[in-house]
Amino acid sequence: MINLDIKKLEKKRDYLILNEDNITIGFSTAEENRSFNRNTEEGIKELDVIKNEFNVKELAYLKQIHSDTVYVFDGQESFNDNEGDGIITNKLDTCIGVFTADCVPIILIDKTLGVVGAVHSGWKGTISGIVKKALEGMKEKFNCKAENIKIYIGPHIRKCCYEISEELKERFLKETGIEEKELFAGRNLSMEKVIEKDCLDFGVKEDNIFSLNLCTYCTEDIKLHSYRKSDGSYGRLFTFVIMK
């Protein structure tokens, strides 16, 4: 896994932007106190703003339910009413994205075939392997090859701050097969380690996995929304990918 150098990312308003040829990856921040909560009027307005800011025809997202359900977006009407936590598409001029406020946002891209994906992975999605299901979807629906896929992991609550119960810790150790010293510090979990393993097991190259090494809970240099830190406020980050 390679840590992304934040200084090399473009700053556009309160986004951190990474451009991969005709593909744009965006990580929103909370620098301007914007929130992309789809359940609020303000959040919907902010989502509409993205279409204008990035000049896209369509914006696709889901009613996230901490599942391992992944959809293919091909322009369906009322797509945004679907319940699930992952989207893949080969549509141009389209923005797909996920909402987070401690959970892990993951962007997947295959520049060779022109396929992208966005995944929301909380602990439930992480332990059920939602990123692997998204990879499987890219392979089955679009014939993507693992060696051509790049993974970008966005800001989330990291091992430094994410304490879970002893019962859940034992479940992660049993179901992932990852050594305790790699996966945990005490009861503090690294969801990223599980996601990385799933990608490697699928066949993604290690040097094609990138991480934006920011913790939503304790990072101070960049303001981010954190559900835990804010005692349940409605602030949400939006991590997205656009293919032109």
TrEMBL record:
<keyword id="KW-0808">Transferase</keyword>
<dbReference type="Pfam" id="PF02578">
    <property type="entry name" value="Cu-oxidase_4"/>
</dbReference>
<comment type="function">
    <text>Purine nucleoside enzyme that catalyzes the phosphorolysis of adenosine and inosine nucleosides, yielding D-ribose 1-phosphate and the respective free bases, adenine and hypoxanthine. Also catalyzes the phosphorolysis of S-methyl-5'-thioadenosine into adenine and S-methyl-5-thio-alpha-D-ribose 1-phosphate. Also has adenosine deaminase activity.</text>
</comment>
<keyword id="KW-0479">Metal-binding</keyword>
<dbReference type="InterPro" id="IPR038371">
    <property type="entry name" value="Cu_polyphenol_OxRdtase_sf"/>
</dbReference>
<protein>
    <recommendedName>
        <fullName>Purine nucleoside phosphorylase</fullName>
    </recommendedName>
</protein>
<dbReference type="InterPro" id="IPR011324">
    <property type="entry name" value="Cytotoxic_necrot_fac-like_cat"/>
</dbReference>
<comment type="similarity">
    <text>Belongs to the purine nucleoside phosphorylase YfiH/LACC1 family.</text>
</comment>
<keyword id="KW-0862">Zinc</keyword>
<dbReference type="GO" id="GO:0005507">
    <property type="term" value="F:copper ion binding"/>
</dbReference>
<keyword id="KW-0378">Hydrolase</keyword>
<dbReference type="InterPro" id="IPR003730">
    <property type="entry name" value="Cu_polyphenol_OxRdtase"/>
</dbReference>
<dbReference type="GO" id="GO:0016787">
    <property type="term" value="F:hydrolase activity"/>
</dbReference>
<dbReference type="GO" id="GO:0017061">
    <property type="term" value="F:S-methyl-5-thioadenosine phosphorylase activity"/>
</dbReference>
